[in-house]
Fold each of these.
Amino acid sequence: MSTISNAINAYQALSKAVTLENTASTDPAATDHAASSFASVLKDATKTSINTMKNAENETAAAIAGKADIREVVAAVTNAELTLQTVVNVRDKVISAYNDIIRMPV
């Protein structure tokens, strides 16, 4: 159930950022707010990713101690794996965009 709520929270945060970004494109005064909002979206996404990884570690430790169901462990580890793949893909896109910017003629 927490996976669904994490996805809903991430979608809501992204939706707010997109709304603010659209407002910023029409209102120059909103640029600072949109930039700080984008930073907060990244910060929230990072916290969520870290919490997902910690949850998988805790579930695995609980399973080793015999206190967790194997289905819960598999779900937590799968969720952590998907989160890690997403983080790696975003990182690769950021690096690619940075490299494209560096290659631009001045």
Amino acid sequence: MMQKIQKFGGAMFTPVLLFAFAGIVVGVGTLFTTEAIMGELARPDSLFYQVWNVILQGGWTVFNQLPLLFAVALPIGMAKKQNARCCMEALVLYLTFHYYFREKN
């Protein structure tokens, strides 16, 4: 029974691994897009702001899609035959691309 609980805990931990990186990206992106901190560089019409805003939106991808990430990661983590973490990575890449493209239009 303890092994099953540990396997479930490990499966739930898979999407949590993305939180640290996404949090750093959101923090740095917010820092560089705040006009009070960066001054004239962070004006919404500047190229500097637009580049960092795209990076910021990419960082928010993980937090905006938490239910979907957990729904995909749980079966992957519980799989017995194959380790399918590449499916989770492909989903995150797809969602990130979707947010980048949506932000650009």
